[in-house]
Write a structure and sequence with these properties.
Blueprint: H1 13-20, H2 24-32, H3 38-43, E1 48-54, E2 57-67, E3 80-82, E4 85-96, E5 101-113, E6 129-133, E7 136-170, E8 181-182, E9 185-197, E10 204-237, E11 242-253, E12 258-261, E13 264-267, E14 272-275, E15 278-281, H4 288-291, H5 295-321, E16 329-335, E17 342-349, E18 356-358, E19 369-374, H6 376-381, E20 386-391, E21 394-400, E22 410-415
Parallel strand pairs: 18-20
Antiparallel strand pairs: 1-2, 2-11, 3-4, 4-11, 5-10, 6-7, 7-10, 8-9, 9-10, 12-13, 14-15, 16-17, 16-19, 19-22, 20-21
């Protein structure tokens, strides 16, 4: 199968003229009900549209460049038909259109230190600092060579020095003979004792004095320190005016007997056609009440109709039980990382020939765990096949479908753990 490409180069002139032709009555109505401006309407036309086959699947990619204030949900289309395919949303990617400015910045950080030793205080420095000034922002890191510790405060301390000296006073116990100072220290106390006795008597032959001297000295010590450091890095200035949204749709070829109704791909019942967006009966009908006048015939016809209805109901139930009738869609629920509850996030249509789908992470940015549910009929159809699940352009998991009971719903979990397994497998292994 080939590749189909189409690009929208400009807004048609007729469309712009129609949008600009606002009558007074329309203006009065717009004053009551908010309407999209002409500029917003023009932004809803994609700057690029590409339809191509990727990994065996039809993919439609539309690119929009819109103001930052515009709601991207207004760009998303519900299920639609295009060139024989039914397309549904697969993913949306947001990018900045404007380039950011950069510059080198630095800032000083000051904190108290417990001592004058650098090794004892480095742990007090933050690993990073955030810079936000005049629209510039960035993350700064410490410059270790700039770290300095200085004395922030001092205190005066005193110390008392003491010494003891012994003096020989001779035969007199005169305290005046004891020096009042010694080496700059003042005498604070003394004690006089006999140095000996005459001929074993109790009469002292002389005296000695033991004196204590003291002095007080003063000195200063550091009691507080301040640590300073310089943080440097690159700051960015975002002057964004537009965002670029890349919206991807995946398409299924519309088979004979299928049609698009109310943004859904349906199987058209026999005797019906989709005309003007409605399901219209076009098959043959008959007025049984006007045709049959005989009561017996009427009873027979009613019995046959009842039997036919029972057969139809039995056939439908048998088809459901055997998995003949089933939905091709997988319902995806995202787990709230706070409450742990699961909430419905999206529905994806799976091609049984190439089972794969993409998680739209923009619908639940913080979710890391997802629960995927499909009917038993679809699970039985995909038995033994690999479903490739991708997010942000990469495969995050490969799940082999192994249903235990085709009558029951099939549920499997997906965690956002990227697997480096190469390109997406589009067919069963």
């Amino acid at each position: 199968m080939g590749t189909i490409r189409s690009r929208v180069a400009a807004v048609p002139l007729a469309a712009l003229m129609l949008l600009s032709a606002v009558t007074p009555a329309a203006a009065a109505s717009a004053a009551q009900t908010p309407q999209p401006t002409i500029s917003e309407a023009s932004y809803r036309i994609p700057t690029e549209s590409t339809q191509a086959i990727v990994n065996g699947e039809m993919v439609l990619v539309e690119v929009y460049e819109v103001p930052t204030s515009m709601d991207p949900n207004t760009l998303i289309k519900d299920g639609f038909e295009l060139r024989g395919y039914f397309f549904e949303l697969n993913s949306i990617i947001k990018e900045d259109c404007d380039a950011a400015q950069e510059k080198d910045v630095s800032m000083e950080y000051t904190t108290s230190a417990s001592s004058g030793e650098l090794s004892e205080n480095l742990g007090k420095l933050p690993e990073t600092m955030e810079y936000n000034e005049d629209g510039w922002h960035g993350t700064l890191y410490p410059v270790l060579s700039s770290v300095n510790i200085s004395v922030a405060d001092r205190a005066t301390r005193s110390k008392t020095n003491t010494t003891t000296q012994t003096f020989n006073l001779g035969e007199f116990n005169d305290p005046s003979a004891i020096p009042a100072t010694y080496n700059g220290m003042n005498r604070v106390s003394y004690e006089i004792n006999p140095s000996g006795y005459i001929d074993g008597s109790s009469i002292p032959s002389g005296y000695t004095a033991t004196a204590t001297y003291s002095s007080k000295s003063y000195y200063t010590v550091a009691t507080a320190w301040t640590m300073t450091a310089t943080y440097s890095g690159t700051a960015i200035y975002d002057d964004l005016t537009k965002f670029r949204y890349t919206i991807t749709y995946k398409g299924d070829e519309i088979q004979e007997g299928e049609a698009v109704l109310n943004n859904e791909l349906i199987t058209v019942p026999k005797g019906y056609e989709v005309i003007g967006g409605e399901l219209v009966k076009t098959g043959w009908s008959f007025d049984f009440g006007g045709f049959f006048s005989n009561a017996g015939i009427v009873i027979l016809v009613v019995a046959l109709l009842a039997l036919l209805a029972a057969g139809i109901v039995f056939g439908i139930l048998t088809g459901i039980r055997r998995g003949i009738f089933y939905s091709r869609k997988i319902v995806i629920e995202a787990q709230d990382d706070v409450s742990g509850e699961y909430e419905k996030m999206q529905k994806v249509r799976v091609n049984p020939k190439a089972p794969a789908f993409t998680l739209d992470t923009l619908r639940a940015p913080s979710a890391r765990h997802f629960r995927c549910e499909m009917s038993g009929g679809l699970a039985n159809k995909l038995r033994g096949k690999i479903i490739n699940v991708s997010a942000d352009g990469r495969v995050v998991t490969k799940h082999r479908v192994e249903p235990l009971n085709p009558k029951e719903k099939y549920i499997f979990a997906v965690d956002l753990e990227i697997v480096d397994s190469g390109p997406m497998d589009t067919f069963a292994l």
